[in-house]
């Protein structure tokens, strides 16, 4: 894995920070801090001036609470008072980001150059610039800012949620605070229509309310600052544990152990979560969107895991929300996805390049010219029998089959080019990039079948024979290829993420296999129809055997990618195909090659569906 291939996405919230490392092929993994996927955003200023983060900050707060800053990000562009002095909030946030960068370096083994940072949609240029400065101070490279609701929407698309262009969705980000945003999906990405936030209506407010319910007030009577932070940490743990347990115990600083159950949590959290519901209703109204046209309300953020969130929103808003998968990591995952974040925080997806690379042009031209060459030889070298009155031709049907296969390969190779043409139609009828590629594959497969059918019709007219055998040998060998290509088109339409190396790389059939098989079949046909003068018989036979050998090598090159396996398998198969060269066997050789091409397509579908984490091996 090279340094330029990994991406780091950080969601630095007011209460906690999460981060994921991702790769263009779709693999991702969360960074772990103290054994957990979330790092507390709290910071502790030690006496020697060093900064402790995460659990170490909370542990140190018990002994020296005056040096503890629980939510540094809320103090944007302010000096934070600490033990009679002040510390810049920028340094506090930078300390958390620096630890994330160190953990990412430890996880992948090299510095990551592509960094995305999630920010609230309601932040203006001043706060976003402040966050960039914090990241720079932490040693991070130039990064890309992604708005939190836009990142969540990107995660929804990557998870397979169907959000048509033009639809409206609501994203409720319930973390330490709450931010509710209304988005519209446009042709180029998601647009934030309205966003409302309340820093005192999220998980941190629930923690304070639950603490007050246990102790009589938020701090607890007679509880010093150090004990208060220890109690807050215990309450946070209890709140998360109640998601899977009926009741948990919480040690109190000045009393016996308290038992917290779901009813107590609901009584403390309901008034706060009703504020979230109120923000949702107000955001929909501010966006001037008819509630009936909302495609869905999606909840993300660490506090969204509380079952009460879904219940309250359903009761007060009238729309049953959906808690997104990996809710705490949703924004980071959306920002990390390949092509998920574009400039300005817009979600964009990689589209087929309007100008294909040279290798793509070669992948189209080589099988195209090979197909024309073989079908020409097929027609021009027919052996005529039966005399002048009733002539009939002996034809190499295997050569026609391979010519048809090459025509389909050339057409399918142009699939991404056709997709680019579809993309350039404009935005009056927007099509997703996956849909563009899928439509391009189907269109190119239809083109290949049409060319193969044309070969059959032209051949029957040129020879003056019934079209049936021509259609049989031109179309039947390509049917499995077209079927598998249709499956790939469906996969492309359903999976918007561009495969590693691009669709052109994934769909490029091995050019070396085409050249080898084409030369092999041409030599076989030459050996079958050449004038067998006494002094040429040996050379003609040798040419046929070499042709069979090359065709066998072409089959292996299509089915197998690793060079070592190609060498191991090509030797016996090439010997067999060289040994059976004859007129009846030429049909068998053509069918074998058609099957090999179908197997290549099946392998590409397998890599795209079953093993998307593996990089496609570029064939030559």
Automatic annotation (TrEMBL):
The chain crosses the membrane at residues 361-380, 400-423, 435-458, 470-493, 505-524, 536-556, 587-606. Keywords: ATP-binding, Chaperone, Membrane, Nucleotide-binding, Transmembrane, Transmembrane helix. The keyword Glycoprotein does not apply. One of its GO terms (molecular function) is ATP-dependent protein folding chaperone. The keyword Phosphoprotein does not apply. InterPro entries: ATPase_NBD, Hsp_70_fam. This is Hsp70 family protein. It comes from Micromonospora sicca.
